[in-house]
Amino acid sequence: MRTKDAATHLASLRDGRTVWLRGAPVGDVTSHPAFRNAVRSAAALYDFQAAAENLELMTFAAPGSERRVSRCWQLPTSYAELVMRRRALVAWAETHFGFMGRSPDHVASCLGGMVMGIDVFRAYDERRAAALLDYFRYARDSDLFLTYVIINPQADRSKAAHEQTDEHLTAGIVDEDAQGITVRGAKMLATSAIMANEVFVSCIQPLHKGDERYAVAFSMPMNAKGLNVLSRKSYEEEAGNLFDHPLAGRFDENDSLLYFDDVKVPWERVFVSRSIDMAARQWHATPAHVYQNYQCQIRLVVKLRFLVGVARKIAEVNGILGFPGVREALGQLAAEAGLVEGLVYGMEAKGGMAGQYYVPDRHLLYSAQVLTQQLYGKVAGSLRELAGGGMIMLPSGVEDFANPLLRDLINRTQKSPAVDPEERVKFFKLAWDAVGSEFASRHAQYEMFYSGAGFVTKGHSFRTYDWQAATGMVDRLMAGCDLERELGRLRQGGG
Ligand SMILES: Cc1cc2nc3c(=O)[nH]c(=O)nc-3n(C[C@H](O)[C@H](O)[C@H](O)COP(=O)(O)OP(=O)(O)OC[C@H]3O[C@@H](n4cnc5c(N)ncnc54)[C@H](O)[C@@H]3O)c2cc1C
């Protein structure tokens, strides 16, 4: 079989899935003006990997099959393999400049991490472990695009899932028989659901006694009967054209609420059922959580490099590059991008074996998560500060260029020491879409929350840091400070 390409992916999305937007069903996501460009950007990932010159970089022969699939499915057994896999993930992220957070490598990384820890599933239930292994092989060998929903709807966060006013708010088991389980309720927040083949559904938040029906993990195709995809507003649809919104117009990966209207899930696709303990262990007792978030940091390195490039260009276009303060600001931004890149290399180098697999260092990963949640808004703020009104003082749209009078005025007023007026407008439209538009604002929210709220990621950092090494040093230093010895010296008239 040939390596998956864009045409194959696009065809797979015309599957009758139920996507809702502005009160109506969407029909074909590959042609709808709210989604088609983002869908094409996602599909382009598969053409990129299938291109002859990229095949070795991007793909590997799936075990037991001749077919080459994305390296995101590869389970590294050494540092060298991890690095090889990372290079493929970087190359994919560069095609979307880091703006597609839930590209196919994200959930593939998560599922791969679960398979690396398959013994944890086996200790829980041999049949569920077998189902997970079978699903992993199916998804890998078909090179599926998976997304996931692993968060419960907000409602009242001070209450457990079963204590909400509607016990069916959060997706949970309402029935079960010899064939499988039936699921009713909602999950947030399915990024990329409109363009994925299947969804992995589970819960990463702590569950409490009484929440057993919500303690599940399962998967299903996006066209499963009863699965409703409730899309948020589309920034792509509002973008209109790629000159005015070069990022929103291409990379609006979408976010949706998923509502499961009594959806049947066969046991072959159920990996955790009614186990609060296993719902938590699947993430943290296996390398899943590390691998999925390691993928995020790799993508973010690419995005930060892009944003630093935008910052430098702002300085060039506005003729401010020579000012010492501006160079300082650019130096700061470059250092911040370098820090995140260094953390990725560090978590790889400091990683270690978990059984037969090589896993990035847990604490350096959580360090990166905590710091980058705070860093992203700061970086965007620095770009705003460098740009001043340049990102706002722009023609209202491409139509202005079609009017000779306005075009003449644009040419007279959009001045730059570095580029012509058209180029200046094009660039500042891009800069605004990167840090100021509604699309950009959603990205700020994404980078703050995709891996959990700040108190969650800081909790992971607290839990995984080597406190013994830190406090041990403090104890060692204090052991050299002896009160009685000092008092003795004092009595002997010493200093
Ligand atoms: C753009 C975007 C894309 C996303 N994509 C996905 C996706 O593809 N799949 C998916 O499953 N999820 C996705 N998410 C959801 C994401 O995982 C959650 O937003 C994140 O885990 C935080 O959960 P929450 O939004 O329910 O916030 P909450 O848990 O409600 O937290 C919001 C704030 O409330 C306060 N708070 C809440 N609880 C506590 C507490 N116990 N202690 C102290 N303070 C508290 C904190 O100030 C916190 O910052 C996405 C989110 C965003 C914004």
Offer a few descriptive terms.
alpha+beta, 14 strands, 20 helices, 495 residues, binds flavin-adenine dinucleotide
Strand content: 5-15%
Number of strands: 14
Overall mean confidence score, pLDDT: 97
Tally of helical segments: 20
Radius of gyration: 25 Å
Task: Give the biggest beta sheet.
Answer: 6 strands, mixed
Characterise the protein shown here.
The structure is a single chain. The chain is of the alpha+beta class and 495 residues long. It has 20 helices and 14 strands. A 6-stranded mixed β-sheet has the order 2-1-10-11-7-6, with no helix packed on it. Strands 5-8-9-12 form a 4-stranded mixed β-sheet. Helix 12 packs antiparallel against helix 13 (362-387) and helix 16 runs parallel beside helix 17 (438-449). The longest helix is centred in the middle third of the chain and has 30 residues, at 288-317. It is globular. The termini are far apart. The model has no long low-confidence stretch (mean pLDDT 97). Bound molecules: flavin-adenine dinucleotide (FAD). Flavin-adenine dinucleotide binds at residues 102, 147-151, 154, 157, 188-191, 255, 442, 445-446, 449-450, 452-455.
